[in-house]
Give the backbone structure.
Amino acid sequence: MAQQHLDPPTGSVAGTAPRASAPLDEGGAPIGDALAGYLRAQATEFLRSLRQHRETGGAAGGGGESGDAARSLRRSARRISGSLHTFRPLLDADWSERMRPELAWLSGTLAREHAYSARLERLLGALNRLSGTVGLPGQGTAGPPKPGGLTVGAAKAGALLDRQLTLARTRAHSAALQALGSSRFHAVADSVAVLASEVPLAPAAGTADLRPLAAAAQDRLADAVTALPLVVAGRPYNAEALVHGLSADTAAQPQDTSWHQVRLLLRLHRYAGEVLYPGECPVDARLLGAGKALNRHRDAAEAAVAAASAARTPRIAPATAYALGVLHADQRHEVEAARFAFQQAWQKEAVRTP
Amino acid sequence: MAQQHLDPPTGSVAGTAPRASAPLDEGGAPIGDALAGYLRAQATEFLRSLRQHRETGGAAGGGGESGDAARSLRRSARRISGSLHTFRPLLDADWSERMRPELAWLSGTLAREHAYSARLERLLGALNRLSGTVGLPGQGTAGPPKPGGLTVGAAKAGALLDRQLTLARTRAHSAALQALGSSRFHAVADSVAVLASEVPLAPAAGTADLRPLAAAAQDRLADAVTALPLVVAGRPYNAEALVHGLSADTAAQPQDTSWHQVRLLLRLHRYAGEVLYPGECPVDARLLGAGKALNRHRDAAEAAVAAASAARTPRIAPATAYALGVLHADQRHEVEAARFAFQQAWQKEAVRTP
């Protein structure tokens, strides 16, 4: 089973041919030069996004062209960093070790603004849903939000979250702009510019088989998934995610950590696939479904923390606190729902390709 | 399909023979005399429980022998009332119409004390679960509650609910004692005493086939189930039950009504089965599972209302209100989980016996 995603796809979507193909050795295995090509392409994309971001002025709010550019910048930074990690033995060790934390710092800094904005949107959406002012998706009761349908508590909770998360987003925006003007960033950008033309492969790495390292990344993912409580997650309404919903420690929940870890390992596995089979369309429904579930898991977990943390604001009205309590529990149930969705997505393929 | 529960069981549990059998006509159909026998037996049971309740003094708290007697009294009152309803055309109309509301009043009055006590237990149990002070059942983490593990908010919410529901229970206990001493109750008890020896069947009802009326009760159940949103309920984590979790009207939710109605119709169907096949063990797993799910649905819905209503107590601390919000959402998710469980139980048999 560990090999299934490492072999080239036997049938692509509707018979379309791969759009590109990686350098192969005589036996048909993807080799180090494919990694170099991938890194060059991602570095080029990074520089293009950076140029675009500067031209659009990096407007606050995370939307529009500037938001697209920032997203694309993060996207290539993550892919470069992930590939350096997975294929570490094939790259110049010193250079690789210097580069990775810098890329992580950059994509982390750039991600924050968008995250706050998405979190606010998620929480306000949930408040409206919980107030019955919007229909649930796909149930024929959808309609435009009815203004004025919120209770005093829900409206005040929304205003409080809006205030807190907008402030956090504004600060993240300033921090991102500051980062992009810093000498630390310029050093990263210079390194990426070098990478775009000259990938520092280790000696003889250009002809090395990439598959063992990609397989190791997949094994790390498989091991981490095996350690997840998937039997519990597969039983709907297991009430596991809210088990510490009222415990004294309302910071990030320890039970979430292993799921977040799988999310990162799944991403590394996906990037390794992009390196090995660059022309392949992202057709693996299992990975896509599992990845989406884990993103939802992360988003809901962070939104639940934001609701709990807003409830600790001094001098709020009981009705506001009550609404935030309902909202926190709702988001923790989203966490549980996301785990169920992951279990279903993961299980599905395991049955189909034994 | 409508007939499946009306035919005698082809195979009982492990080959055990029915403990009793109902009067049948020449073609083997249960007849009106079976109804008379059932009503006499229930009336006798009612009188026995009443005697036991008086002897044990009707102590408050709903526990012990007195609680058993009250439960047994309600149990037979419900069965008499349900049978009068289902088999109305076979009974003296005037008598039947007089009797039913009186039995409903009695079992309602007697049920309240137990309901408040069970609701408090459910809510305090949930508060402990949500505080991570007890393990979830069946997950190997169960253990004794750890005292002092509650947050201030959860502890205060628990104390508030304890105060409010204990007061309500005490009042319900007094009301029940008062009811049992009232002339209205003595009139009911007299009627039941008459019923224990002489069932007022309509002319020629003694030999009438009971099955058409039992089938009609089953059809009413089937129709009500068909009207339930079972497709939505069968999709785990559909987020439907909490859709009005924060709406201005926090009284009983209209979306619950049709489920409560099915619960009552399921009970009538079950009692009709007891009349027709008195010796049959209660082996129909589908009906048992579905009935349990609907009881859980009702209990969770009422507990959610109690949490929301406690949150409207004036001058509570925000932390208390927050905990009550989490608790309300938790119980509404229990409502959703119960609907899912009902859908699963109902679906199961429908597949097994097409």
